Amino acid sequence: MTLQRSWVASANDAESLFPLNNLPYGVFSIDGGERKLGVAIGDQILDIAAVADTLPIESCLLADPRGWNAVMEQGIAVWSALRAALQNLLGEGACPNDDALYAQASATMHLPFTVSEFTDFYSGRHHATNVGTMFRGPENALPANWLHIPIGYNGRASSVIVSGQPVRRPWGQLKRAHEELPRWAPSRRFDIELEMGAIVGRASSGPLSVDDAYSHIFGYVLLNDWSARDIQAWEYQPLGPFQAKATATSISPWIVTAEALMPFRCATPVREQNLLPHLQDTTPMLYDIDLQVSMNSHVISRTNYREMYFSAAQQLAHHTTSGCPMRVGDLLGSGTISGPARENRGSLLELSWGGTEPFYLADGAQRSFIEDGDVLALHGAAQGDGYKIGFGSCTAETLPALKDPFGQT
Ligand code: MN
Questions:
Q1: CA of 394 to the centre of ligand 1 (A)
Q2: What is the pLDDT of residue 49?
Q3: Residues contacting 277, CB < 8 A, separation 6+
Q4: Which segments of the chain have a pLDDT < 70?
Q5: Whose CA is closest to 7, among 129, 112, 94?
Q6: Helix (H), strand (E) at residue 315
Q7: DSSP E strands: which ranges in 104-151?
Q8: How far apart are CA 290 and CA 264, in angstroms?
Q9: DSSP, residue by residue, 211-229
Q10: What is the pLDDT of residue 286?
Q11: DSSP 153-213
Q12: How far is the CA of 372 from the centre of ligand 1 (A)?
């Protein structure tokens, strides 16, 4: 696959995140106006409602106040037909239609779809090994179940926000190991988790095979699972994370479709323990996507989505094994994606090794966890032959904690 050329000139630049090969889906507004469904092309957004009469889909579906949910509900044949029609419409040979384009620089982006439910997994082996080593020692780093099932927990859809919205440091109940009683205080170990989010595009009501689960995934976004480590350390046993993860989860504004990512498929790693047959994959279902984290515009980590131990398809298949119904618009977080080296760690907890080894930004500033006002950004792109499939950014400024909301301190 090479660059597919568009009549939108900026889309033909080899460094563009949004060439004709990509065509990710978002929701945008201009100057506080109504929200519109849009497709990114170069540095522009195609207002899809403005070209609805040329597309193989009912126009009312392109004005869904929920975002792209109605399009997803049409199923995989419509997803494919819509993408093909958009590639024709925006391709080099087509008649240019500047009236339907808006500059991305002038647009405000919104959540691209209404999140039905949010589940977060823990399927990055380097991350799980690092965190387990810090908390339990290297002998017991991976729990006994880890190599056999994608471990996850049911999170909150209500706190999923789009890139660009700020995130406020939470208050919570904290207790250090040497303290006898817990305290009520703002988190001092507020952190990020670099993840990919997979979006379920088809509903299901019973167990899915891994192959079926793969075909149910509509697309992917970057995902930052904000995590208050001090709240987490006190609350997480025995039922897992709760308030530590409930402040916010940020996602990037453009849904990159599974179809656009097809040329970048790669296999999950060789297993040291065979998976049970219902979780085995038969074709490559991960993707080669370069990822990076920056803090105040300094890159602090680089890794790749192919580091995952379980694919989103395996996670979704496992999610349905109990008969759990899945909805269109369900969001699945991959788990923190760290790589083998220190510079590949996808959380500050790992980068600072639990706060014991502070790290330095390029301007000399020292960090272990987030300081008020820090701007955290995730970026991601798959590198093709002379083109990229970009995700854009998943960015948020962090705000100081409110005054004690209960007036107790
Ligand atoms: Mn997470």
A1: 15
A2: 95
A3: none
A4: 408-409
A5: 94
A6: helix 312-320
A7: 107-110, 118-121
A8: 11
A9: HHHHHHEEEEEEEEE-EEH
A10: 98
A11: EE--STTEEETTS-EEPPEEEE--TT-SS-EEEE-SSEE--EEEEEEE-S-BSS---HHHH
A12: 21
Structure token digits, residue 184:
């009520």
Q: Report yes or no on whether pTM surpasses 0.70.
A: yes
Residue 193, Cβ density class (10 Å: 0-12 exposed, 13-18 middle, ≥19 buried): buried
d(CA 312, CA 123): 9
Calpha distance 120→97 (Å, rounded): 41
CATH class of the domain comprising 9-110: mainly beta
**Ligand 1 center to 382 CA (angstroms):** 22
**Rounded-to-integer distance, Cα 408 and Cα 184, Å:** 8
Name the token pair of 108.
Answer: 């405000």
CA 333–ligand 1 middle distance (angstroms): 7
Structure tokens at 55: 């597309």
CB count, 10 Å around CB of 384? Answer: 17
CATH architecture of the region 118-399: Alpha-Beta Complex (3.90)
- In 10 A of CB 135, how many CB atoms? 13
Q: Is the peptide bond before 238 cis (omega within 30 degrees of 0)?
A: yes
* Dist. CA 38 → ligand 1 center (Å): 29
> What is the chain's alpha carbon radius of gyration, rounded to the nearest angstrom?
21
Catalytic residues, by residue number, are 127
Alpha carbon of 226 to ligand 1 centroid (Å):
8
Domain boundaries, the chain: 9-110, 118-399
Q: Which two tokens stand for residue 257?
A: 């479709």
Sign of the alpha-carbon torsion through 173, 177, 180, 186: negative
For 44, the token pair is 């522009």
Residue 320 CA, ligand 1 centroid: distance in Å:
20
The Å distance, Cα 94 to ligand 1 centre, comes to 43
List, in order, residues 6 or more apart from 84 with CB less than 8 Å away. Answer: none
**Would the CATH topology of 9-110 be identical to that of 118-399?**
no
H/E run at residue 133: helix 125-136
Which pLDDT belongs to residue 1? 87
Q: What is the per-residue pLDDT across 363-380, written as a single tens digit (0 to 9) for each?
A: 999 999 999 999 999 999
The structure tokens listed for 348 are: 């500050």
